[in-house]
Specification:
3-stranded antiparallel beta sheet, 10 strands, 5 helices, 23% helix, globular
Amino acid sequence: MKHYSEEHQWVQVDGDTVTVGISAFAAEELGEVNFVELPEPGAAITAGDTLCVVESVKAASDVIAPVSGRVVEINASLTENPGQLNDSPEKDGWICRLCQVPADELAALMDEKNYQRFLHGDKP
């Protein structure tokens, strides 16, 4: 099950790691992505800080980390094909995988139903 942040990032828990990406809504808002600056493997990430930078035809945008953790893997294919963030933002366009993610931070995120409500201006 995916969980979403108010900054339009998603996380999916898989055992001891979580995969992080941007939502389809965020990908649409960004426009055509032409560059992604990925986090460094091994980097310590803090929720609310910049996870990575995405440049599109519209602007450069910081992707905000929805949870804290340590980067254990990056989606290196985004370096060569940043358009994956547009084509498959919630599958092949994932950004990185984190470990050591605090359970309380995961619990604070929205499920898909509440995220859809949030997108439509309803309170989750």
